[in-house]
Amino acid sequence: MKSTYFITVSAIIVLLFSCKKETNETPLKIQQKPNILFIMVDDLRPDLGCYGDTLVQSPHLYQLASEGVLFKNAYCNFPVCGASRASILTGLRPTPERFLKYNTFAQEDAPDAKVLPAYFKENGYTTISNGKIFHNKNDHEDAWDELWRPDPKNFSNFDYHTEENLKMIAEGTRGKAYERGDVPDSAYFDGRIAAKTIADLKKLKNSNQPFFLAAGFLKPHLPFNAPEKYWKLYDGKIKQPNNNFVPKNAPEISIHNSGELKQYREIPKKTPVADSTAIKLIHGYYACISYVDAQIGQVLQTLKELELDKNTIVVLMSDHGYNLQEHTMWCKHCNYKTSLQSTLMVKNPFTNKTGVAETLVEFVDVYPTLLEAAGLPMLEQLQGKSFMKVLENPNAEFKDFIIAKYNNGMTIKTHTEAYTEWIGKDAAPNNKMFYNHITDPKENTNTVAHPENKKLTDSLSKLLKENWGADFKLPDEE
Prior knowledge:
Blueprint: H1 2-24, E1 35-41, H2 59-67, E2 69-75, H3 81-90, H4 106-109, H5 116-122, E3 126-131, E4 146-148, H6 163-170, E5 178-181, H7 189-204, E6 211-217, E7 224-227, H8 228-232, H9 275-305, E8 312-318, H10 337-340, E9 341-342, E10 344-347, E11 355-362, H11 366-374, H12 388-392, E12 401-406, E13 409-414, E14 417-422, E15 432-436, H13 454-467
Parallel strand pairs: 1-6, 1-8, 2-11, 3-4, 3-6, 5-7
Antiparallel strand pairs: 2-9, 2-10, 8-10, 12-13, 13-14, 14-15
Helix pairs in contact: 2-9, 7-9
């Protein structure tokens, strides 16, 4: 009996040990908080294969979009780098007194706001920023466990590598607005940002903490610099837009002078660029897209090889769109769709849903979405709302309108229309725009003065003012 009892107890102990061991060997990733890979691409308009563009070669972004949810109607809240990023990372809308410039500091404009990486850090995440996430490197430095940007080579923050451009820099002037460099991918900043991010993934693989890893790629921002092999993809294929004119009846205030571009060598200060220059600029922009696509592809491939993709939510977005000579402009600084509409795709391995979401979203919605995805409590400061239900069902309806602004121009965008009016010192009867995106998707004719549109534009104006935020105050009109 004693022998039988001993065998039975031993068997139970072995069985319990086996069960415990088996339980411990169940992938901990399922029980942990999800990792976040947050990829920001500067000035990337949705000219990508996954958005239906037949010219631009961006296979890695296409692959990512096919593995997650592509947001076809994603809009920034302010089409300028610093202001847009401050808005995204605080979850706050821009106002006439907040988030106004390219060099906005979130910590100055919204000192009481908890920024996205800081909140994740407080909740046990390792936070790393590579490249350009906030516009200013020293904005909210304490939100990150590690903050890194590539040091400029060749004494130039413009990342030039050709003898021609380096000579201009040595002479004390800015170089050209583009560069076709016979250099490897690793020569330019984005190649180095990809390499650093890949190294971080390998390091984080063995960490027992979840991570919020941000990679901020710089292209296709000016200057349009990319290695030769990406320029070759578009040789002889570039055409200018067919709406290189000011929209009919558009207010003068709606057209930007493209001052950022005019700071570069060989760009005329007061007259339009020559057609040959326009072709080179568009060519360079597309080469930059293919270049940054390749760098992001390496990062995503490493994520899969390390099997971190099973527990990592990937967000890829740009800060705003960009005009490539549409409506005569080379800029993002305006209220037209080419600047406000941007790139957004999210891969969530926990919902495992794929598809194209047609519903409207705005960038203040990204912060609350990531909180819900990570199971973190919402913050009262957040002015957007989570689009988690769209990640669970790409066909779900989410928003009927979004609100964006540039300076004193306020835009409300619905599924089928866009209405803009200028407020404060810029308010005037003629400073309004209305575009029907069904009949005029490229916004070539402003029909705000058409009598048949008055009832609709009045209702859109009312809806805009009711929803631009409780802390929105009209600017001083003096």
